[in-house]
Amino acid sequence: MLSDDVLIFEGGGVERSLAEYSAHHLKSDIKFSQAVPSQLLERTVQEADGLAVITSRYSVSGEYNGREVDLTMNETVTLSNTTESGWKIIRIHWSN
Known about the structure:
By secondary structure, the chain is of the alpha+beta class. It has one domain: Nuclear Transport Factor 2, Chain: A (Roll), CATH 3.10.450.50. It is built from two helices and six strands, in the order ββααββββ. It has helices spanning 18-24, 26-35; strands at 2-10, 13-15, 38-48, 51-64, 67-82, 86-95. A six-stranded mixed sheet has the order 2-1-6-5-4-3. A hairpin with a 2-residue loop joins strand 4 (51-64) and strand 5 (67-82). The protein starts with a strand and ends with a strand.
């Protein structure tokens, strides 16, 4: 679902492509998501002219790498719909 030129903003940093994200944070983000349960608190979807913006809030609680985690995570995902590839994620912004 990620576009090759996806922009991902996380923890004050930015990754400017799927290749860069895959090389840096993807594996650790997967490990964290698998280890720490999250619960969707709210979600909104706005769509117009081939773009969709999804905003979500999650409660994230559990233990990761021997440390307690208890936070509210905010996520904004922007998707673009093109006839060649269908819906692709072009931007993600995570904060807590």
